Amino acid sequence: MALVTPLSPEHDLETKELAEFFNETLGFCPNSVLTMQRRPAISKAFINLNKAVMANEGRVTSALKRMIAWVSSNSTGCRYCQAHAIRAAERYGAEQEQLDNIWEYRTHPAFSEAERAALDFSLQASMVPNAVDADIKERLYQHWDEGEIVEMLGVISLFGYLNRWNDSMGTDIEDGAVESGNKYLGKHGYEVGKHDGSQY
Fold it and tell me: What domains does the chain contain, in order, with CATH numbers?
């Protein structure tokens, strides 16, 4: 059971309408959003920010954005968001080799140098204290323009919020996300941890 119980999807109809976005990205409305709607202004603002951050305005693909989210969530240890991010990457057409080898993105040939720079940026930006430095800036500018870097940092920052929300809440993880987590992350010891409904 999570720290705060998710409400029914019918609780706030404006949130429900906005949350249709997640039926495309995940195939279900996440329990995190169903919890946020206890204060509907938060759930609605979050969904609108999510939609803006995940919009594609440059060459940062939907799949790469979700892999950026996975690296960020992996670095902070949020099992809930790791599973959601890898599931969304799959649904948005990430290559099978990338999904199977996301842990080895720095060396695996399925990842380009541009993708490695983006994923390293995610890792360094997610650390506490922050580790973004001149070297990662130089690497980013070799492959990406400033608008694309803003898109990437939007994803990293969004998942900074989600990692704190879901790990603090112990948000119960949905079956579909568990399935994706086990499928792509299980060989590296992925388990749902506090998100199995038994923490609190």
Answer: 58-188 (1.20.1290.10)
